[in-house]
Amino acid sequence: MRKFEQLIKERRSTRNFTDELLRQEDVEILLKAALMSPTSKNTTEWSFIVVENKQTLEQLAGCKAHGAAMIGKAPLAIVVCADPFLNDVWIEDAAIASIYIQLQAEDLGLGSCWVQIRNRETKNGSSSEEYVREVLNIPMHMQVLSIIPIGYKAKSRDPFDENKLQWEKIHIDKW
Ligand SMILES: Cc1cc2nc3c(=O)[nH]c(=O)nc-3n(C[C@H](O)[C@H](O)[C@H](O)COP(=O)(O)O)c2cc1C
Questions:
Q1: Fewer CB within 10 A of the terminal residue: the chain, N end or C end?
Q2: Which domain holds residue 112?
Q3: What is the pTM of this model?
């Protein structure tokens, strides 16, 4: 099987990380992947915040009632933001950057998980985005799409089973 094909098959969301810190050269490779992700009209309206401070990671874990706790256990997280005033398709661009980071992480032997921030709420019913903005001092005009916690996998997960792919979702020529 080709390398990229294998990578896609093996990437599964990682929610359990070891305590091992990332190598700084790997952090740089992850950020380069984000900065090489394509944007509509080449607007590059995204920005990324790299968080390694343990206390800040623990604070970020409180951004949602469910599905964000693993941020507090990760050695690093990348917060994906974008400027909606620069591009009306900032969501698509920030989403592509998020998945580029995840695929690059997998290629480095690291695990990651997408934590949805946009349109989500904290346990008190306030905006997750506002919560993250406050913790990280993000300017008002910037939107926060996702947080990607990254680290060494504490548990391995099964790759995709090709026999279970939903081929019925594929339509040929017409729906
Ligand atoms: C847009 C998007 C938002 C997601 N949000 C969360 C989240 O907030 N918390 C979480 O634990 N996983 C989140 N995930 C991970 C999905 O639950 C996961 O990708 C899906 O269950 C498939 O599993 P796999 O990634 O292991 O193949 C998100 C994934 C995507 C693509």
A1: C
A2: 16-155
A3: 0.98
Exposure b/e, 73-85, CB count within 10 A at least 16 = b: bbbbbbbbbbbee
CATH number at residue 124: 3.40.109.10
Number of domains in the chain: 1
Ligand 1 pocket residue status of 116, Cβ below 6 Å: yes
pLDDT tens readout for residues 43-60: 999 999 999 999 999 999
Q: Is residue 37 part of a domain?
A: yes
**Which of 8, 13, 153, 160 has most ligand 1 atoms within 8 Å of CB, for mutation?**
13
* Residue 141 included in any domain: yes
Contact status, residue 18 vs residue 151, Cβ threshold 8 Å: yes
Distance 137 CA to ligand 1 centre (A): 26
